[in-house]
Amino acid sequence: MKWEKEKEARIRSLQKGKKELTQPLSDSGKDEMDDLENNLHKTREFLEEFIDTDFDLIDRLRAQGVLKIREIDDIKAEHSHMRRSSLLLDIISTKKKIPELCDALIETGQAHIVNFLKACGERSPKFGDDWPLTEREISILDINHESLVDILETCCDLIGRLYSNGAINRRQLDFISSKSTDYEKNEALLEILRRGSLRSYKQTIECLCESKQNHIAEILDTGKGIQVPVHATLKTDNLDEAETQIVEEMTKLLTQKNVSSGRLISALQLNITAVKRGQ
Prior knowledge:
Radius of gyration: 21 Å
Oligomer: single chain
Structural class: mainly alpha
Number of helices: 18
């Protein structure tokens, strides 16, 4: 099957990548250090958005002796993700500890960020799927965010599969599981996915198929999102009238060309969720 072949290829690529990353970057010479500093300056805006400071990274840097307790407290005191990343990069740059940051990123499953930094954003085939999401994947997640938050089913065995396949780590698993509502769990997973690698993105598609959420896997894989605006569709608080409007919307979708069953299922789930919220 297609997914089995791709899975085998990703495992081989991951094993190859681990072999290539055995040399610590903290052993870098002056020339390589200068290159890293220049690249960090050029890719700073990207790094602030996509470095994941929330799971393991800060603790690894503390264990390396790079961050002090007061610096860690200052970073954690920032409420937004980008401000935490920005402060971390300020500290790393001032202390000239970019190689140590790279080592910690690799150890916390963020080799794709290191590859982006070292290549200054110029993707090479040698990186394989150890690379950040491209504009295509980011666009798919952003355009379909509201729909995905409503119809994802993280309460089933999905997050367990993601953990077993290496798409998320233990702290990310615990973080998602700690959320009290399905909505919050889905928000947490999508945020982690957005900052992850292409490898994790493809593993997520595979895990969605294995957990019988093929319609969502199709959205992430093909980019064919659900274009049924909930607020525009449901123009009443009356349940009977809302059900009638849902039937009308489904009928419109059925008349469109190249509308997959996955899109129909997702659109139906999305509208049913909206009706329940209005009850």
